[in-house]
Design a protein that fits this description.
Blueprint lengths: L4 E6 L3 H12 L5 E4 L16 E2 L6 H18 L12 E5 L2 H17 L4 E3 L1 H7 L10 E5 L3 E2 L2 H14 L3 E3 L4 E7 L2 E7 L2 E10 L5 H7 L12 E4 L12 E4 L4 E6 L2 E6 L25 H11 L7
Parallel strand pairs: 1-2, 1-11, 2-8, 4-13
Antiparallel strand pairs: 3-7, 4-6, 5-6, 9-10, 10-11, 12-15, 13-14, 14-15
Length: 306
């Protein structure tokens, strides 16, 4: 039996369980989280690269990211840890135009109270010895950035939210909503019903279908994102900073002594959510080797041994 709750959250990925934890920390502990899979963080979240960068173009956005880091530090002190590694990050500019942008980002960081510094090639080389900074125009260093293991983040959120009184129902699929006086008043699932005051849609690739059950046409669609992890490479140690290279649309970090390298695709493959139903997983993502090869080819400009 499901319990009636003030808040019902649909989806137990990092966003859903993170929301539950935030509500509980704010004193709103009458929360029920529904997850169709057998465990939290086991679908989209489990595929995440896990980077956390705080440098943004406004003080407000920076402070929001700083809150995330503060939360990861807090969770790292708990019994179930998110594998938070505060190794810092290097943001690398390859053009004068991007270097000017970095100066604006540095000013925004100063306004938000975030430590971030423009460092020279010598300092950058000390922090990432394998990289070639000869053609680099500017490097922005943020010492409090880092990375985590996304699935462990979800597990840590769940553990700590449950300690505060949040309830979780896994292997529980949403089937519909109850309405009263023009608003949602409860949920219907394969394991029974529950009444609620609020529903939070955190269903990831199925967020469209959850909204549709409520009578809403949510204008979103899943987009493919790719990264790869190399075999172990000499000189890659777990304390090396994360990095981002905007001109090459690349980011990366060390993972299990190999290099995790990903990128933003200007024309990413996407999937119309109307082409599949909530009862089924989205069509499988087929590895796009030309795209992954392009990441590697671009990155050899900075890491010739890659």
């Amino acid at each position: 039996m499901l319990s009636d709750s003030q808040y019902i959250i649909v989806g137990a990925g990092a966003v859903g369980v993170g929301c539950a934890y935030a509500l509980a920390k704010a004193g709103q502990t009458d929360v029920l989280v529904l997850e169709r899979a057998d465990d939290v963080g086991s679908v989209t979240t489990s595929q995440g690269a896990g980077l956390c960068g705080q440098v943004r173009d406004s003080a407000e956005r920076i402070r929001l990211a700083m809150h995330s880091v503060a939360t990861f530090r807090e969770l790292q002190r708990s019994e179930v840890k998110p594998d938070w590694n505060e190794v810092g990050s290097l943001r690398i500019a390859l053009s004068d135009r991007r270097a000017e942008e970095f100066r604006r980002l540095k000013a925004a960081a100063d306004a938000a109270g975030l430590e971030a510094d423009l460092i020279d090639h010598t300092e950058a080389k000390r922090r990432w010895p394998l990289m070639d900074f000869a053609t680099v125009k500017s490097v922005l260093w943020c010492p409090s950035d880092g990375y985590m293991t996304p699935r462990w983040v979800a597990a840590s959120y769940r553990h700590n939210a449950a300690k505060l009184g949040v309830k979780f129902a896994t292997a529980t699929a949403l089937e519909g909503f109850f309405h009263q006086n023009g608003r949602i008043s409860g949920v219907r699932t394969n394991r029974g019903t529950a009444q609620c005051r609020y529903v939070i849609n955190a269903a990831g690739a199925n967020a469209y279908h959850v909204a549709k059950l409520a009578g809403l046409e949510l204008p979103i669609f899943p987009v493919r994102h790719e990264y790869y992890v190399t075999v172990p490479m000499d000189g890659l140690t777990p304390d090396l900073p994360c990095f981002r290279v905007p001109e090459l649309t690349l980011y990366g970090r060390v993972r299990e002594a190999g290099l995790l390298l990903g990128g933003w695709e200007p024309k990413s493959v996407n999937q119309d959510p109307r082409s599949f139903t909530a009862d089924n997983e989205p069509p499988p993502v087929v590895t796009d080797w030309p795209v992954l090869d392009s990441f590697e080819a671009s990155f050899t400009r900075l890491l010739p041994t890659a």
